[in-house]
Design brief:
The chain is of the alpha/beta class. The protein has 13 helices and eight strands. The protein has an eight-stranded parallel barrel, surrounded by five helices. The protein binds 2-phosphoglycolic acid. 2-phosphoglycolic acid (PGA) binds next to strand 8.
Length: 254
């Protein structure tokens, strides 16, 4: 059984002080037993990671700390970059790789994504690999082709026993930050396709890999999305900035 995983992607929002308040506000709305049903992650900006680590540690909260990006090298002359080892030392356990905003605005391609996935795994950080087609690609009937390319690019040369540890986030680009969610059936169809692609090469890992949906997830649509058999959680952007609506998504069954 795959445990659902809900991740708040705070993108470039919030000072370290806001991060502290948002984590506390979320935790006040969670019962200890909720964490048995769902894994919860928060992905604040780099400048907030240390504070988040302290807040989570002080109250021993079962919340996973997630980074939004990493560099593939261990260390070196890469001004402005942050390595997997640095993140691990801050109790970061997951890292988002290949978010569409990074692909579109910061030139990340399938090769970069693959280097980052391998660097993360080597440092025992679990990658949350974001893949998704653009609207023009979907309209041109190329959505599956794009997904296939991004998926095999991300998973290239990953040892079979590591594949099951990776989390995939299917985020159709046209649904991110637009208020236009993919229909649950549409999201399920693509996520099932992703799982079957993984199954063709890694039959066992395919049952373990958690595949999240991302793109305008909110408390109003989360239950219908989570009712689909292959959707294992969500990567939540806009709705996660309000602790109330974040809690509404995380506790999707209430
Ligand atoms: P959104 O963002 O929920 O605001 O659409 C999701 C994401 O980009 O991860």
């Amino acid at each position: 059984m795959r445990k659902p995983f809900m991740v708040a992607n705070w993108k470039m929002h919030g000072t370290h002080f806001d991060t502290m308040q948002w984590i506390q506000a979320l935790s006040y709305q969670m019962e200890p037993s909720d964490y048995d049903r769902v894994d919860v992650g928060v992905a604040p900006p780099f400048t907030s990671l240390r504070t988040a680590q302290i807040v989570i540690g002080a109250d021993d909260l079962p919340i996973h700390l997630v980074a939004q990006n990493l560099h593939w090298a261990d260390k070196g002359a890469y001004t402005g970059e942050v390595s997997a080892a640095m993140l691990s030392k801050l109790s970061v356990s997951y890292v988002i790789v290949g978010h569409s905003e990074r692909r579109q605005m910061f030139g990340e391609d399938d090769r970069t994504v693959n280097r980052k996935v391998r660097a993360a795994l080597a440092a025992d950080l679990l990658p949350i690999v974001a893949i998704g087609e653009q609207l023009e690609e979907r309209d041109a009937g190329q959505a599956e082709e794009v997904i296939n390319r991004q998926l095999s690019g991300a998973l290239a040369r990953i040892p079979a026993e590591q594949v099951g540890r990776i989390v995939i986030a299917y985020e159709p680009v046209w649904a991110i930050g637009t208020g236009r969610t993919a229909e649950p059936a549409e999201a399920q169809k693509m996520i099932r396709h992703i799982r079957s692609r993984i199954r063709s090469r890694h039959p066992e890992a395919a049952e373990e890999v958690r595949i999240l949906y991302g793109g305008s997830m909110n408390p109003g649509n989360v239950a219908a999305l989570m009712a689909k058999p292959d959707i294992d959680g969500g990567l939540i952007g806009g709705a996660s900035l309000d602790p109330h609506s974040l809690a509404g998504c995380v506790k999707y069954w209430t």
